[in-house]
Amino acid sequence: MALGDWRLTLKVGVRPVRVWTWSEFQALPQTEQVVDIHCVTTWSKFDTRWRGVTLDTLLQAAGLEAPTPWVLAHSQDGYSTNVPLADLTQGRAMIATHYDDRPLAPEHGGPARLLVPHLYFWKSAKWVNALQFNERDEAGFWELRGYHMRGDPFKEERYG
């Protein structure tokens, strides 16, 4: 995807609240995190370095304060995954644009992916283009196919 075509939309329900272009998104304060990531298929990768914009920064920039308890992340390719808002705030998650000091490669979700490192990696949606804030917990792609609604690797929350 050409960076000039990329957009990130925040929605409350189906109503768009804020849309960022790539250049607007890049102008937001950036954060760097070194975190471990865990795949549901039992592999882990330790001390991975990411850079991007935290969900706290996005909420503040959009003038939103915890609008709903649930978020459904949407991707360019139609993928979606649900995450409790509490798992996305307080610096716990970001929209990542860089990995190991390099722009995120398309095969790894570039130009931007959701990064929720304390949950299984299927929650870190590649090619993210929208975050939809919902009153109810709505299952995403893998959750509809039997995966756990939260996906905490330290509680072995693989399947629902």
TrEMBL record:
InterPro entries documented for this protein: OxRdtase_Mopterin-bd_dom, OxRdtase_Mopterin-bd_sf
Protein name: Molybdopterin-binding protein
Residue stretches making up the Oxidoreductase molybdopterin-binding domain: 5-142
Gene3D superfamilies in the record: Oxidoreductase, molybdopterin-binding domain
Record-linked Pfam families: Oxidored_molyb
Taxonomic lineage: Bacteria, Pseudomonadati, Pseudomonadota, Betaproteobacteria, Burkholderiales
Domain of life: Bacteria
Organism per entry: Comamonas aquatica DA1877
